[in-house]
Write a structure and sequence with these properties.
The chain has a five-stranded mixed beta sheet with strand order 3-2-4-1-5. The protein is built from seven helices and five strands. The protein is an alpha/beta fold. Helix content is 40%, strand content 12%. The model has no long low-confidence stretch (mean pLDDT 91).
Length: 191
């Protein structure tokens, strides 16, 4: 399987630098334009996209629907591709987080306190995203699959294909498209 990973287009909360998590925020006009731009690029992608899987959260769903409209391929939604839940941190401006990002905040607080605030653990996120990718890899051998989801999910996709790296805290930008070919030989990287 060739996996193309696309983070959703921009939302107002992205533009305001707020933590979204599971809060269901729609795309803004910039985000819709970004989705149309990626759709135009994907029309000429070789090998062509054969199916799209997306998070059911509105921002990813809208992005995927715009692309499906251009490509004319099937679209499926999978809850395992939803963004990490950040509990009480959702809606918070990133400058209020320790280190200015979720990963830094999580590291500073520690797992127990992060979970007490209603957040989902990285282990749980990695497991559900990895389970989804395992299933897609088995089902779509030799095919090209587009996954449209979120920044945290994108980080787990990267770890799935290239191994776990705690120092990789870079947030994938809105509507950034990444390509992943077959993962490294062997089992799923251990988290």
């Amino acid at each position: 399987m060739i996996l193309l990973y696309l983070r959703h287009g921009q939302t107002d909360w992205n533009a305001q630098n707020r933590v979204q998590g599971r809060t269901d925020i729609p795309l803004n006009e910039t985000g819709r334009a970004q989705a149309r731009e990626r759709a135009a690029e994907l029309l000429s992608h070789r090998p062509p996209v054969e199916i799209i899987y997306a998070s059911p959260l509105l921002r990813a769903k809208e992005t995927a629907e715009i692309i499906r409209g251009a490509l004319g391929v099937p679209l499926r939604f999978d809850d395992r591709l939803m963004e990490q839940c950040f509990g009480k941190l959702e809606g918070v401006h990133r400058t209020q987080l320790i280190g200015g990002c979720i990963a830094g905040h999580h590291a500073a607080l520690g797992e127990a306190e992060f979970l007490r605030q209603g957040a989902e653990s990285l282990h749980a996120l990695y497991k559900r995203v990895g389970d989804c990718l395992d299933e897609l890899g088995e089902k779509y051998v030799g095919q090209t699959v587009l996954v449209v989801a979120h920044g945290g999910v994108g980080r787990m996709v990267h770890w799935y294909f290239h191994g776990h790296d705690e120092t990789d805290t870079a947030l994938h930008g809105n509507a950034v498209l990444r390509r992943y070919d077959e993962k490294l030989a062997g089992e799923r990287p251990v988290f």
